Amino acid sequence: MPPKICLACSAGGHLAEMMQLKSFYSGYGHFFITFRRADTESLAKSERVTFAELPGRNPLATMKCFAQCMGAIRRENPGVIISTGADVGLVACIAGKLLGKKIVFIESFCRPSKPGLSGRMAYLFADLFIYQWKEMARFYPRGIFGGSIF
């Protein structure tokens, strides 16, 4: 049986990027970890979604999000976590790494010339790090240029 995939991302643009990968992940068992907002509520009508607290650089909210992500990852037991960032996506990656999961992090399309905070942090531990702009190679020498998700 192929491994289950955890798709971890924030709402908005990060979710839009993740949805561009649907032709890939739809062939596997999968679930999302994200925070509650209109677009993710809509997603939950057709996909398995675990809602976690939005960290928003708030230490207490981040701890709650971390506990929720740990619980979801333990319960669902994915083989890999794929994230397009940020906030909840990064916290889920950290939780997954601590639980021994493989991490694939895709740096946001909106980062053509300078790394984002989530990308810089995930680069330290991701098993596979993909960036979407060739200019990012100088920041992520161990990463892979994957081209645009869009």
From TrEMBL:
GO biological process, one term: dolichol-linked oligosaccharide biosynthetic process
GO molecular function: N-acetylglucosaminyldiphosphodolichol N-acetylglucosaminyltransferase activity
Keywords per UniProt: Endoplasmic reticulum, Membrane, Transmembrane, Transmembrane helix
Domain of life (superkingdom): Archaea
Pfam families per the UniProt record, alphabetical: Alg14
Gene3D superfamilies xrefs: Glycogen Phosphorylase B (3.40.50.2000)
Topological category with respect to the lipid bilayer: Single-pass membrane protein
PANTHER family: GLYCOSYL TRANSFERASE-RELATED (PTHR12154), UDP-N-ACETYLGLUCOSAMINE TRANSFERASE SUBUNIT ALG14 HOMOLOG (PTHR12154:SF4)
Designated name of the protein: Polysaccharide biosynthesis protein
Organism: Candidatus Iainarchaeum sp
